[in-house]
Design brief:
The longest helix has 22 residues, at about 1-25. This protein has about 120 residues and is α+β, with helices and mostly antiparallel strands. The chain starts with a helix and ends with a strand. Helices cover about 40% and strands about 35% of the residues. A hairpin with a 2-residue loop joins β2 and β3. It has one domain: Trna Endonuclease, Chain: A, domain 1 (3-Layer(aba) Sandwich). It has helices at about 1-25, 60-65, 70-90; strands spanning about 25-35, 40-45, 50-55, 95-100, 110-115. Belongs to the UPF0102 family. Pfam families: UPF0102. This is UPF0102 protein HJ526_04260.
Length: about 120
């Protein structure tokens, strides 16, 4: 049962984060986009810039941040490059990679440009 609870909690966290990006003027282009390189929780766009968002939820923001491994970061970067390549035919487009942290109280902390493409 905890697997299903975790899955549903993850969806709820992603919904909250997507709403926050929309409230800030972003257009949500994809949710849980999956390519050969991996999955991206949220793809948003604002003023021509693509924003790729990894959502992490845990008891505290610190614990959520600690759950993002180096291997996951590399997967997200590759998936973002794959998405941009499919959308624009190239990867040299305006983009940033954010991490959105949600604590058990539902407070969201967005770390812009938290992941840097190589």
């Amino acid at each position: 049962m905890s697997g299903k609870v975790s899955y549903l909690a993850g969806l709820a966290a992603e919904d909250s984060v997507a709403r926050q990006y929309e409230d800030a003027g972003h257009r949500i282009m994809a949710r849980r986009w999956r390519g050969r390189s991996g999955e991206i929780d949220i793809v948003a766009e604002k003023a021509g810039e693509l924003v790729f968002v990894e959502v992490k939820a845990s008891k505290t923001h610190d614990r959520a941040a600690q759950s993002l491994t180096g291997r996951q970061q590399q997967r997200i970067i590759r998936a973002a490059e794959e998405y941009a390549g499919k959308l624009y035919g190239r990867t040299n487009v305006g983009m940033r990679l954010d991490v959105a942290l949600m604590d058990q109280m539902g407070a969201i902390q967005i770390l812009e440009n938290a992941l840097m493409a190589a």
